[in-house]
Amino acid sequence: MTEVRHESVAPTRTQWLASGEAIDAHRHDDHQIIYAGRGVLAITTSEGSWVAPGTRAIWVPAGTVHAHRAYGELDLHLVGLPAAENPLGLGAPTVLAVGPLLRELIIAYTHGEDDGSGERARLRAVLLDQLRASPQQPLHLPTPTTPLLRALCGILQADPGDGRTLAELGREVGASDRTLSRLFRSDLGMTFPQWRTQLRLHRALVLLTEGSAVTAVAHQCGWSSASAFIDVFRRTFGHTPGSHPAH
User: Fold this and answer.
1) How many separate domains does the chain show?
2) Which of 52, 58, 115, 218 could form a disulfide with 223 if both were Cys (CB 3.0 to 4.6 A apart)?
3) What is the mean pLDDT of the chain?
4) pLDDT score of 247
5) Residue 135 DSSP label
6) Given its phi and psi angles, is residue 40 left (phi above 0), alpha (psi -120 to 50 degrees) or beta?
7) Is 186 left (phi over 0), alpha (psi -120 to 50) or beta?
8) What's the rounded Cα separation, in Å, for the pair 45 and 101?
9) Of 140, 169, 193, which closes a domain?
10) Residue 239's pLDDT is what?
């Protein structure tokens, strides 16, 4: 992210992105809630990446340099909030669960005119109440900073279905599994199995959105069976991969 576009105000609006379209690195002086009514939204910062299907939104704090990418046609809803007003108390990008009520509130608010009316203010207040009650989702894939982890994670990002153990991967990058385990915890704040599962879920969302079959996605992303994949996916996203909308 070399050139960073700066926008003083994070807009509240709707936006359509074609599949594969990207918004280059930029930052706002305001906080922003980003929700994709359809498709899968990926947000990338120097700290890692976050993905959100239609049952999730992403909170991006003021000043965070971030880029967007669309997987599938993206119906994007953007809600800007003043930097002085942080209803969630969050200082880092975070994925939030979006239930039916919150979804409709976001859509109504981003389609409406900011006319300063009492109705608009009440809609905003209910939207913020729902956001505060929205569970945070562990859908962050952190970016490694140490050379050893960069090499190892690069191997798996090229092929998330690679089923080798940490010890086997360690022999390729020249480190013991004990050293690598310690680095995963200190550098990324999670274990190797946790990071690999996050990577596989991120890739699975993209493949499903592109129309791949559930069994094929399970195989490409390294699950031992379609049923094992379905179980992890349901526990993470609240619905089965078969019901995930494709592009």
Assistant:
1) 2
2) 218
3) 90
4) 47
5) P
6) beta
7) alpha
8) 29
9) 140
10) 81
CB 4 within 8 A of CB 26: yes
Instruction: Count other C-beta atoms under 10 Å from residue 215's C-beta.
Output: 14
Q: Given a cut of 50, is residue 34 above it in pLDDT?
A: yes
| One domain for residues 170 and 71 | no
Give me the half-sphere count of Cα atoms (radius 13 Å) on the Cβ side of residue 159: 7
What is the end-to-end Cα distance of the chain in Å, rounded? 28
Whether residues 58 and 167 share a domain: the answer is: no
C-alpha distances out from residue 57 to 4, 33, 38, 60, Å: 23, 7, 11, 10
Mean pLDDT of 204-208: 91
Residues 219-236 have pLDDT tens digits of 999 999 999 999 999 988
**What gap in Å lies between CA 122 and CA 100, rounded to an integer?**
18
pLDDT confidence of residue 245:
58
Q: Report yes or no: 204 and 229 within 8 Å, Cβ to Cβ.
A: yes
Angle separating helix axes 192-209 and 226-237, nearest 10 degrees: 90
Q: What is the pLDDT of residues 121-137, one digit of tens each?
A: 999 999 999 998 888 87
Residue located via tokens 């004990």: 178
Structural domain including 81 reads 5-140
Are 72 and 110 part of one and the same domain?
Answer: yes
pLDDT at 215: 96
| 205 and 171 within one domain | yes
Give the pLDDT of residue 154. Answer: 96
Output the domain CATH number for residue 111.
Answer: 2.60.120.810
In this structure, the answer to whether residues 13 and 133 fall within a common structural domain is yes
| Cα 72 from Cα 134, distance rounded (Å) | 25
Could you tell me the sign of the dihedral formed by the alpha carbons of 173, 175, 180, 181, in that order?
A: positive
Question: Distances in Å between the alpha carbon of 112 and those of 31, 38, 79, 106, 169?
Answer: 19, 19, 11, 10, 52
